[in-house]
Amino acid sequence: MSETKKNRITVDIYGVPYIIIGTESPRHIRQVASMVDEKMREINSMNPSLGTNKLAVLTAINAVNDYLLLMERVERLEEELKRVKD
């Protein structure tokens, strides 16, 4: 039985260090953290009075919204590909 190697990476998100443990590459983990940090800063620039908790929730909502839109697009493309193949 092979064990998947876990990477332990310290990242900085919105000025706070976090230790992230995952099987993804360190580069991937850093990229995810960087994107979260960027989105939090973007939302903060539009709403500077938001507390960190609300900012984090709005960042999560934005991320899930983007994910769902991409999944819908993938489904449409897969359906189109299936029609072209058939």
Automatic annotation (TrEMBL):
One Pfam family this sequence matches: ZapA
Keywords tagged on the record: Cell cycle, Cell division, Cytoplasm, Septation
UniProt main location, coarse: cytoplasm
Keyword Acyltransferase: no
UniProt cross-references to Gene3D superfamilies, sorted A to Z: 6.10.250.790
Taxonomy, superkingdom: Bacteria
Subcellular location: Cytoplasm
UniProt keyword Cell cycle, yes or no: yes
A biological-process GO annotation: cell division
InterPro entries according to UniProt: Bac_CellDiv_Activator (IPR053712), Cell_div_ZapA-like (IPR007838), Cell_div_ZapA-like_sf (IPR036192)
PANTHER family tied to this protein: CELL DIVISION PROTEIN ZAPA (PTHR34981)
General function of this protein: Activator of cell division through the inhibition of FtsZ GTPase activity, therefore promoting FtsZ assembly into bundles of protofilaments necessary for the formation of the division Z ring. It is recruited early at mid-cell but it is not essential for cell division.
Self-association and partners: Homodimer. Interacts with FtsZ.
Protein name: Cell division protein ZapA
